[in-house]
Description:
Four Helix Bundle (Hemerythrin (Met), subunit A)
Amino acid sequence: MERSREDEVRGRLADIAGPEPDPAERALIGRLIRSFLGKTPAGVDRLAELLRGGDAAALREHAHALKGSASNIGAGSLSAVFAEIEHAARDGLVPDPDVMLGRVAAEQALVLPVLERIAAEGE
Length: 123
């Protein structure tokens, strides 16, 4: 059975702060999520530029960084899309920008509201 985006995120955050985080840990989680939410739009914009520009080496590095950021907060499905881009670029291929950016946007539409809700819990 597929885990929901919320289960993915909450599972990862429990790995970080434990199943019953104290107020300071909840605040830290909130800051981590807010940082991700603040940096990701610019990161995805840069990803779009790299996908359209065709530089596989730069694309690989950037997709790798985005993959790690998403994975660190438990956005596993979003991380998997970035990983797919990274792997293609590692092979010297630049995936179709419209297809990949559509997939990124679809995953963001599912996980970003979850992240907003969880971040608000720590505030």
